[in-house]
């Protein structure tokens, strides 16, 4: 069963994660930033869509010149209490203008989904042991907020 | 010889509770005086019980407390912290109520 | 005072509903304790030494009589009939059940209150001068800005999981009564040469195990840029603050590591890159909020100081006037402090009965408004001078007229090991022992201003670093011992206290304080404050007296 939440629904996940090195899977692939930096030309020339995964230490500005070529950026929550990816998300959306899929990966739990969405995430890879149907309820927890929504609002934002 | 009681808080109420073991049966008591006092070997077995209870969402943060056993099933705490935790606040409005 | 609009009401109701659901999921095991703990903390719910404790926000320390009665009702219904005012202008209930916590939050929402972000690694309740809007030395009223900060910070999606907690304090007056130098961000309202309102911005202050005074990173920030600039500070902190060590995770450690100047440059760069116009506080927004803080309908009163005549006749009234009554920016009004101290009281504790009595008196004498001070007292902020005598009598009957504000027995104390799971020693019994040693009111008045702050552990909730006399309780092999510091101050020219000598057992602390005070009384020049004397003499002059003949017992 899919664990990927997008547009308020569970959807099939076409993306495959690539390791730091070794052969790439076919199709749409997400590579770590270091690999993207090292193999940039080959990766951009490759068939299939390309995504990059940032660790919380990475500076989103490293992707500034390439975001137009990327269909996805994955931001990692090593623990759900590590909030650095929230800032990365807003920088990608608001400062760098990234309009592709912004995906939360790692320790992604129900009670943080709405915060993530409000920082510009539009895809959520729920932690494997959690009930996805239960998690979908999170988006209805609030009908109001004190802060302005992320702007410009990305397409397909929840 | 070293002696221990096992303590935790009730998840639902927050109350301080101690593990009471009778044969194969066990339960949680809010009266410190009725806690079971064990030696080092019992401590580990009882902590395992308590940790399983935490996983069952009955108690929170169980731990073993060093105590001085009186030899008749009773005990006294060795630290101010555990004495206060067992006896409640030593001052003020809590005493009157 | 601030009244909720539709957004506030909807938000708080949804917050209660969310927390009720989270509690249900914790109880049935869908949430583990590790997953739940940060959620309950962000709703003010701790698991303390004996039970769950709920910390309720009192935004910038202002309460209505109706709200105070609701707090009293909560104390009676869900707790053991009392609450505890904290050094951050909040109130704590010590005996809350997890399965009733959402009911308490719902009761709070009824009176436009909440417990949101009173704990957790997020922006905490914004604190300010308890005399905001009252003090004659005020440059501008800080409360509208505090309220804007409250709204901005409430469930801020980017800053709900910071490296560590984050405390902001704002002062609008010349004298700093909000201790801004010991906050993560300290904001001081200032005017520029053209008379425009802005903020001096300090960052990186804090107490705890690494006490540091904040550094100025901006001399003048136009007031309209407040939210954007604070957001820039938070973003730099969220991205670069340490997360590997809880003791090094506060912003003060980042500021220290980078240097205040480099940190300030990083903030400026972030701020310059931001949508500053989008974050600007426009005049309409400020005015809408400021309307809530319009002064009450003061009466036009003739006699500027009608209390003087009575003070001549009644020395007890005169003493109360001298210590507990402060000037007001409106000449015929006064601010009246109610000390939750003295007479064996637990510093900051108030019973439901006391809360209700104060709520009644506020309605009778002070436009139904109550303030909470960071020194754990209450204030009736707008009392007509000609009502002072009547109010004094009513407070005396209620046992609330202790004329000790600012004196040796007006002690700040954290709950300590009597309640707190983190504490290493008790604080309250030490406060009570000092209280008993200085029971003579005439003597207290002779000594004058002298701040004693007691913390029951190195986390410093009792602000011991910034007391004239600071007392820190620590655990030494299972026994409580206490370390004294002298010469701390949280006001202007803030300073951290210097350790006096070896720690003392609990029964020697009050005696040591007595000897310190004796040195002050013997050596002070006319008008010289305790702090000035310590700075002039150094702590050794006090050390010799405190430890003379004591070494044999000192731990």
Task: Write a structural description.
The complex is a heterotrimer of chains A (158), B (97) and C (555). With 158 residues, chain A is α/β, with parallel strands linked by helices. Chain A has one domain (4-140): TIM Barrel. Chain A is 22% helix and 20% strand. Chain A has helices at residues 33-38, 40-45, 84-95, 113-118, 132-136, and strands at residues 4-6, 9-11, 16-17, 29-32, 50-54, 72-77, 101-106, 123-125. The two termini of chain A are 21 Å apart. Chain B is an alpha+beta fold. Chain B has one domain. In chain B, strands 3-2-1-4-5 form a 5-stranded antiparallel sheet. In chain B, a hairpin with a 5-residue loop joins β1 (3-10) and β2. The longest helix of chain B has 16 residues, at 40-55. The termini of chain B are far apart. The mean pLDDT of chain B is 94. Chain C folds into 4 domains: 6-110, Sulfite Reductase Hemoprotein, domain 2, CATH 3.90.480.20; 127-290, 2-Layer Sandwich (Sulfite Reductase Hemoprotein, domain 1); 307-397, Sulfite Reductase Hemoprotein, domain 2 (Alpha-Beta Complex), CATH 3.90.480.20; 412-547, Sulfite Reductase Hemoprotein, domain 1 (2-Layer Sandwich). In chain C, 37% of the residues lie in helices and 17% in strands. Chain C has 19 helices and 20 strands. Chain C has helices at residues 6-27, 33-41, 65-78, 98-110, 143-153, 226-240, 251-258, 260-273, 276-279, 283-291, 307-313, 315-324, 352-365, 388-397, 428-437, 441-447, 509-523, 530-537, 540-547; strands spanning 45-47, 52-56, 62-64, 82-85, 91-96, 127-128, 168-171, 185-191, 197-203, 215-222, 325-327, 333-338, 349-351, 369-372, 378-384, 412-413, 452-455, 469-476, 479-486, 498-499. In chain C, the strands form 4 sheets. Chain C has a 5-stranded antiparallel sheet with strand order 1-2-5-4-13. In chain C, strands 3-14-15-12-11 form a 5-stranded antiparallel sheet. Chain C has a 5-stranded mixed sheet with strand order 6-7-8-9-10. Chain C starts with 5 loop residues before the first helix and ends in an 8-residue tail after the last helix. Chains in contact: A-C, B-C. The A-C interface holds A 80-84, 86-88, 90, 94-95, 109, 111-112, 114-116, 118-119, 131, 134, 141-148, 151 and C 7, 10-11, 14-15, 17-18, 21-22, 30-31, 35, 38-39, 121, 151-152, 154-162, 235, 238-239, 243, 273, 275, 278.
């Amino acid at each position: 069963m899919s664990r990927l939440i997008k547009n308020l629904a569970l959807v099939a996940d076409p993306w495959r994660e690539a390791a730091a090195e070794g052969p790439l899977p076919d199709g749409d692939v997400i590579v770590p930033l270091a690999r993207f930096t090292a193999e940039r030309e080959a990766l951009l020339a490759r068939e299939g869509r390309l995504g990059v995964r940032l660790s919380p230490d990475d500076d989103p500005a490293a992707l500034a010149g390439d975001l137009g070529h990327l269909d996805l950026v994955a931001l990692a929550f090593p623990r759900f209490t590590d909030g650095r990816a929230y800032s990365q998300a807003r920088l990608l959306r608001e400062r760098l203008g990234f309009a592709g899929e912004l995906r939360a990966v790692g320790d992604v739990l129900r009670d943080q989904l709405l915060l993530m969405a409000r920082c510009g995430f539009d895809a959520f890879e729920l932690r494997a042991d959690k009930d996805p149907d239960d998690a979908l309820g999170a988006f209805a927890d609030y009908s109001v907020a004190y802060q302005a929504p992320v702007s410009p609002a990305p397409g397909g934002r929840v | 010889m070293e002696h221990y009681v096992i303590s935790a808080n009730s998840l639902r109420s927050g109350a301080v509770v101690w593990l009471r073991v009778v044969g194969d049966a066990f339960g949680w008591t809010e009266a410190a005086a009725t806690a079971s006092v064990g030696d080092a070997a019992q401590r580990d077995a009882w902590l395992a019980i308590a940790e399983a209870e935490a996983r069952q969402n009955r108690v929170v943060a169980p731990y073993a407390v060093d105590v001085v056993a009186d030899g008749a099933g009773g005990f006294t705490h060795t630290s101010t912290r555990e004495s206060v935790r067992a006896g409640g606040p030593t001052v003020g409005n809590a005493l009157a109520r | 005072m601030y009244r909720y609009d539709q957004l506030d009401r909807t938000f708080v109701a949804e917050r209660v509903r969310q927390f009720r659901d989270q509690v249900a999921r914790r109880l049935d095991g869908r949430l583990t304790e590790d997953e739940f703990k940060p959620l309950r903390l962000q709703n003010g719910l701790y698991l303390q030494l004996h039970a769950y404790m709920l910390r309720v926000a009192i935004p910038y320390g202002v309460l209505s009589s109706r709200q105070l009665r609701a707090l009293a009702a909560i104390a009676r219904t869900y707790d053991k009939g009392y609450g505890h005012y904290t050094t951050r202008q909040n109130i704590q209930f010590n005996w809350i059940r997890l399965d009733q916590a959402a009911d308490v939050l719902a009761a709070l929402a009824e009176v436009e209150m909440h417990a949101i972000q009173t704990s957790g690694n997020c922006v905490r309740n914004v604190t300010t001068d308890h005399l905001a809007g009252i003090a004659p030395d005020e440059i501008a009223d800080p409360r509208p800005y505090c309220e804007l900060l409250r709204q901005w910070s409430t469930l801020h999606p980017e800053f709900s999981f910071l490296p560590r907690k984050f405390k902001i304090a704002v002062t609008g007056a010349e004298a700093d009564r909000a201790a801004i130098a010991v906050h993560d961000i300290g904001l001081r309202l200032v005017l520029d040469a053209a008379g425009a309102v802005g903020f001096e911005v300090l960052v990186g202050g804090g107490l705890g195990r690494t006490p540091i005074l904040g550094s100025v990173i901006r001399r003048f920030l136009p007031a309209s840029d407040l939210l954007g600039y604070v957001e820039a500070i938070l973003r730099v902190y969220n991205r670069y603050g340490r997360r590997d060590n809880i003791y090094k995770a506060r912003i003060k450690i980042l500021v220290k590591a980078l240097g205040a100047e480099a940190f300030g440059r990083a903030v400026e760069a972030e701020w310059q890159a931001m949508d500053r116009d989008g974050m600007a506080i426009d005049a309409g927004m400020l005015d809408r909020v400021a309307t809530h803080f319009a002064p009450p309908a003061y009466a036009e009163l003739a006699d500027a100081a009608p209390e003087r005549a009575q003070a001549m006749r009644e020395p007890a009234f005169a003493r109360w006037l001298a210590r507990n009554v402060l000037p007001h920016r409106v000449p015929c009004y006064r601010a009246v402090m109610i000390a939750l101290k003295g007479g064996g009281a637990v510093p900051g504790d108030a019973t439901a009965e006391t809360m209700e009595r104060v709520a009644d008196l506020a309605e009778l004498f002070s436009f139904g408004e109550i303030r909470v001070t960071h020194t754990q007292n209450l204030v009736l902020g707008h009392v007509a001078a000609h009502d002072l005598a009547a109010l004094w009598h009513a407070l005396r009957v209620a046992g609330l007229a202790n004329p000790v504000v600012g004196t040796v027995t007006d002690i700040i104390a954290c709950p300590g090991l009597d309640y707190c799971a983190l504490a290493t020693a008790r604080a309250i019994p030490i406060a009570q022992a000092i209280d008993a040693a200085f029971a003579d009111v005439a003597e207290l008045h002779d000594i004058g201003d002298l701040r004693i702050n007691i913390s029951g552990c190195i986390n410093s909730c009792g602000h011991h670093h910034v007391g004239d006399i600071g007392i820190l309780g620590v655990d030494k092999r299972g026994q409580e011992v206490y370390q004294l510091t002298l010469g701390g101050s949280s006001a202007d020219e803030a300073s951290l206290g210097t350790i006096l000598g070896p720690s003392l057992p609990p029964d020697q602390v009050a005696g040591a304080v007595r000897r310190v005070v004796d040195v002050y009384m013997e050596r002070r020049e006319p008008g010289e404050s305790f702090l000035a004397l310590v700075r002039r003499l150094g702590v050794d002059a006090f050390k010799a007296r405190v430890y003379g003949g004591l070494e044999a017992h000192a731990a």
